[in-house]
């Protein structure tokens, strides 16, 4: 995208009807760190407001009828433009608001994320009733002209947080920045003119008179206000004269309740952060800290220690953690609380005075157990001064926490998660967190109770299948060339509704499992969506399973219905069908066996053709009303999919993944690929794995793209045929798939020019492979994703903006709303750059392993702060920029003479060799060293195979001698098989490969040192 031209360092103008609107009168803001005057800004008149409202009314007639997808693309383009100017916006924020550079960077990032996130939220149209008597439909309709009154504490984030939802829902908006912080908001709206028609996004800059003019103007249809409770009440009174719709996000007096089982130091550090962030100028700051009396002295000491570590100063200076208060009225109000310290005789734990300075600086202060009726407890200071209080019983602290006129947020800090959740349900606040605070997302509604506001902002709920059908309509959703199938989004909605009714007709209900054993075919998708619609977990079985393995997997997952293809690739499934139908342990749960393509070759009990099964969805007894009732029972936390883990380390476990897990993971992967409705994603990876189902289908489906499944089982020629025929813009696969495709292109040259990006998982991509993909397929950016089945699957992903040294060697960075840490064998976090076990946390963590609580608790563990982490079993490290690097499976480490060697490190070095296309490193037993390094290599077809000594010399260039392979096995040479054992998702089965290496090494004799 071309970076829009805009000067963020001067010429601050208001925008009316797409044009700069100068005013006779101007004013200026102050830099709160030094009280220096900033640039002049306009002061709007009532005539300016009338003109802006008239322009908005005119624009609304067109914008409200603009298709949702066009509105969405405009918002996303606007977000990209803000992203391209992020550094300038950060500097502007620090200058006008006073917050330090890291906090300004956070606000800018969040402003961009909020727009992008809200652009992914569906606007469902729900049929509440459809009977002979009546049809009731609930839908979102635009209101008209929205006036956004933006506060001074988050002038950029809260502006975009009002602009994006208004525009996405078809409204037009007039933005009024705070007179204290007008600069960023004015530039934001000026930048928006590049992406929206005149009158859709306008700005007015003014003084204290402008707000009341806007709230009472008869042409304004909705007020969105964020600010103090007192001003909010005035806004409500003013708006009541014309009965406008009003959303108020007002003040808070948020309590934190600290239980005695917490890690005192770590919890104190976090509580201090959330109490004094932005120098206490956030409605969601912690403002009352209740600490259990048994740990009060220790907690106070830890809290004081962390507060003393803060650096107060000009936010533009490096190392400053806390800036000034933003304006003179707020500075005066906070000074009043400091005057009460002496007047009321409060005890001070830290701080307690305001030093003279050239700006509005206030030292962070903690009041030690003030009276419950004191002003510091009852009121919201909106500054860096908080009371520290004690409690002894749950009933007492709940009553005290709720004893306030406000109810915006609260947090419970407790290692006993069940106890914390029980207490949280008793707290009267719109947002209650456990072991954290102020953790917001554009996906969730945000609002307060009591005098903390009216209504909510952000978030929505809806049935994704129905929503996409209404939004995308006749756009192609799914192409399956080998079945000669093309389905639109409307087709998928209709066919999945028929399949859902057929499942209900067959006796399945919410929570019953539905299984499938098939290749990549259109029925797979419609059954997946059908099961999702009625809350039936969809179990996917690995197509490489033997009949015995399939029977075992069906029994372990308690399938009530199983769908089987008559063939998968060239493999017939007759034996699978027969054993499933006749095995006793399977019969305990299985009630329905349905075959695609044809009837079974032998007469079997309760086995049907898929066509006959679907007929029950159209001709059976289940009505649309019954389907809708079933759909209403489905919740985001319900299990959507059950996947068998890859089995690289032994018997696969059954991972339970929820709607929330998979839809969000797919959405974020698609966002990383920058998918739009114009993209065509070619997906050869199998649907029985998260790669095909989530990174492929759901990433495409949530972004309105088209997905192509070229073959039921991977076939390089069919994949390339599909890329050419469908003009694919994205190509997915594991490295071996790309290698096969390149080899196919050598034997049958073709010109591929449409593929702009790709996505790889399972194994590293060598520089030589990336060079070939760029040269022969025109792939400019190849994303690398990392995760595991249990994390839905992606937790790390690279960016299309990453340089090659990051794109090809790292895992990328964590997804939004995801955390990662590296721990040692005792569970302690290791320093940056040091190796340890990769652990991840966040929305993507599975619900658990099906019927295996022991394995669940082994893999998923709460830390001392009550945060749940997935222990991946992978070894890796993080660098200072937040990029992750994997060094191998902990179980795969090679222990040579007592030294731990990382197979991944050696593999990466081997892959850098221009003649090496694939590399797999394992251990081989050795009498002297215990274990030594063995490497399986595949040569690039266009390169001469190097000698073993060349390879050893190559490794020795950058790695120590102990990491040089003692054994080198070339695939397809000297009795070595042409392929290594892999899982169905393309990962090396190293526990099997180790056995192969030991057998081959035994034939060769003594290793080379």
Automatic annotation (TrEMBL):
Name of this protein: Putative aldehyde dehydrogenase FUS7
Keywords of this entry: Oxidoreductase
Residues annotated as the enzyme's active site: 249
Catalyzed reaction equations: an aldehyde + NAD(+) + H2O = a carboxylate + NADH + 2 H(+)
Free-text function comment from the UniProt entry: Putative aldehyde dehydrogenase; part of the gene cluster that mediates the biosynthesis of the mycotoxin fusarin C. Within the cluster, FUS1, FUS2, FUS8 and FUS9 are sufficient for fusarin production. The other FUS cluster members are not essential for fusarin C biosynthesis.
A Pfam family matched in the record: AMP-binding_C
Domain Aldehyde dehydrogenase, residue spans: 25-461
Native organism: Gibberella intermedia (Bulb rot disease fungus)
Family: Belongs to the aldehyde dehydrogenase family.
Domain AMP-binding enzyme C-terminal intervals: 905-987
SUPFAM superfamilies given in the database record: Acetyl-CoA synthetase-like, ALDH-like
GO molecular function: aldehyde dehydrogenase (NAD+) activity
Enzyme Commission number(s) from the entry: 1.2.1.3
Record-linked PROSITE patterns: ALDEHYDE_DEHYDR_CYS (PS00070), ALDEHYDE_DEHYDR_GLU (PS00687), AMP_BINDING (PS00455)
Lineage: Eukaryota, Fungi, Dikarya, Ascomycota, Pezizomycotina
PANTHER family registered for this protein in UniProt: ALDEHYDE DEHYDROGENASE-RELATED (PTHR11699)
